[in-house]
Specification:
It contains 3 helices and 6 strands, in the order ββααββββα. The chain is of the alpha+beta class. The protein has a single domain, classed as Roll (Thiol Ester Dehydrase, Chain A).
């Protein structure tokens, strides 16, 4: 995969009460949702909103997702999800997500996506997305080892 970095889109998230569990902390599954919101915002920021991608013949499917939790978030916290494209090639994208509360990383995650045809077979990424990816400035991630 081609190594690159589009640093660093920050998406604010305010924790809703319904996202917390009986212990009063954000349920672990919601961090994956926060990463998805941030990934969608990243695609829109580079000029490839997901709605535009899905109008074509290609779909992006999650092939891997991970999250490591370092500290809790609670109701009404303001979080900031940083989205960094780590790797990409003609068929796949890999993202790094840093979820911060008050400038402290409370969770670190990742997701990988693969392009598939409408029928579910491997396919290249949509042309508009490949074009935008090739135009993105290649810079090393300052968050690589956070």
């Amino acid at each position: 995969m081609k190594e690159t970095c589009f640093s660093d889109l920050e998406v604010p998230i305010r924790v809703r009460y319904c996202e917390t569990d009986k212990m009063g902390v954000v349920h672990h599954s919601n961090y994956i949702r926060y990463m998805e919101v941030a990934r969608m915002a990243w695609l829109e920021a580079i000029g490839c909103p997901f709605t535009r991608i899905e109008r074509g013949d290609t779909r992006l499917m999650i092939t891997e997702v991970s999250c490591t939790y370092r500290a809790p978030a609670t109701f009404d916290d303001f979080l900031h999800v940083h989205t960094i494209l780590k790797k990409w090639n003609k068929f796949r994208l890999s993202f790094l997500f840093l979820i911060k509360k008050e400038d402290r990383i409370i969770a670190r995650g990742g997701s990988s996506l693969a392009a598939v045809s409408i029928e579910g077979y491997p396919a290249p990424l949509p042309e508009i997305l490949l074009k935008r990816l090739s135009e993105i400035d290649v810079t090393p991630s300052q968050h690589e080892h956070d």
